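Input:
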Amino acid sequence: MNDQHDDADTLGLHFFGSMTASISHELKNALAIINENGGLLGDLAMLMEKGRPLEPERLKTLSGNIRRQVQRADDIIRRLNRFAHSAQEPAATSDVREIFEFTIALAARLATMKGVTMTIAPGPPVQFETRLFQLENLLWLCLKHLFVLTEGNQTVEFAVADAGAEVLIGLRFGEGLPVEEIGARVMREGQSLLTVFQAELQVDASLLQLKIPKKRSF
Amino acid sequence: MRVLLVDDEEELVATLAERLDMRGITTTWVTDYRAALAAVEQEEFDIALLDVRLPEMNGLDLKRLIADRRPKMKFIFLTGHGSEEDFKACSAETGREYYLIKPVQIEVLMAKLNEIAQS
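Output:
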C-alpha cells in the first residue's frame, strides 16, 4: 500500500506541475493584455501631446479593459491558491459536483486548446469522504488522455450518482473517441490512484465509469 | 513592413496591432490557425508573429504550414511560457532566437521586427 501511495504522490507532482504551468500561462496572457492596454494609453497620451484629440470614451474603454484583466488575473490566482491548498488538505466530506466544477475550471484552458467542451450533467449533490487533490488528479488523468487522443471538436460530460455503498463517477465522451484506449491509459498511468481509492474503472461504449466505495481507509 | 499577428487572446492581438500600426507597421490580426492560413492565402506578409500555444494547432506547426505557402516569410514566436524547451523548439524552427516571452515591451518587439526585416 505504501508503494501505491508513493506512486500516487509522484502522479500528484506531475499533476501539480501540469496545472501550475497551465495557470501561469493564463496569468501571463492577462498580464500581456494589461501591458498592451497600458502601453496604448501611453501611446495615446503622447499623440495627445502632439495635438491629436483623445476621446474620453476611448479612455473609458481602455480603463475597463485593464480592470477586467486585473479581475481575470485575480480569479486565476484564487484558483491557483485553492488548488495549492487542496494538495495539503486531509480527507473530508466533499460534494463531487463541486469537485467537477473546480477540475473543469483548472483544465479549461487546455480543453480550449484541444477543442474540447466540458459540461456537468444535472442532478442532486453527491457527497462522500475523499482527498480533494487525489480526486482532482484522477479526473485530470481522464481528461489528459482525452486531450492526447482527441482530434478536436469533442465533448465530455461529467456525471455522478450515489449508488448506496459506492459513488459512481462517469465521463461520457462524444462520438468517435477511442474510449477503450482512454480507459486503458488511465488504468496504466493511474493504477496507484485507483488503488488508493479502491476504485474500479469500467468502460461501456462512450462512458468511462469510476466506482468508488464510500467507506475506505486513507 | 506587413505583419500578421496570430494569438487566441483577441484583446491582446487587437491592441498590439493598433500599437504597431501607430509605429508605421501594417498589420492584420487573427485568433486561430484557420484564419491565419486564410490570411496568408489572400495577402502578402513579411513577418508573422505567432503565439506558440494556439488552440487546435500550435504555433510551430502553423509556422510550417505558412512557410510552405509563403517561403519568404519570416517568423517571431510569442509565448507565455519561458521554458528552455519552448526556447529550443522555437529557435530550431526559425534558425535564430526570434522568441519573445509575454508580456512583451513594444520597443523590444519593434527592434526584433526591424532586425528581421533587415536580415
